[in-house]
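Lay summary. Proteins are chains of building blocks that fold into shapes, and those shapes determine what they do. In this project we predict the shape from the chain. Here is one chain we studied, written as its sequence of building blocks.
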Amino acid sequence: MKKIAIYPGTFDPITYGHIDVIRKGINLFDKLIVAVSEGGDKDHLFTTDERIKLVKNSLQKDMKISSKKIEVIKFSSLTTSLCEKYNSKIILRGLRAVSDFEYEFQLAGMNRKLNEKIETIFLMSDVDSQVISSRLVKEIANLNGDLKKFITKSVIIEIKKKYELSK
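And here is the predicted shape, written in a compact code that computers can read:
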């Protein structure tokens, strides 16, 4: 039986922390579905389609990661419903710090209540990526800081365009 994992998130924008979790995920599973959320209570800098393009460009063009085991999709449903649709029993989540764990633990518990057959697996980002968050990347970009250590070339180009338009 093929092991399929769903890695859901907003990826607004995708960072090296996300990419680290994706790399680890493709080593653990037969297929990894990177699911870009359309909804949520966040104000997004990039549209869903732009975020999907950024994920694909970051993984394939910038990082040269093969797309054979990765599928990038958008979704607006419960993650557990997405798992059912793609016949996955695994939700993959990345952790950076203890502060992430509290929220992620609660989310995993709710998902477990929604479907007890689905497991959430947490992967730690490498030490170099643990401080990176999309929120902080956007703040650094807005203040015209150096982004090279946090996001790929494709994302840097697109995020600079966004902030140039807003100034």
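What the prediction tells us: The domain at 4-165 is CATH 3.40.50.620 (Rossmann fold).
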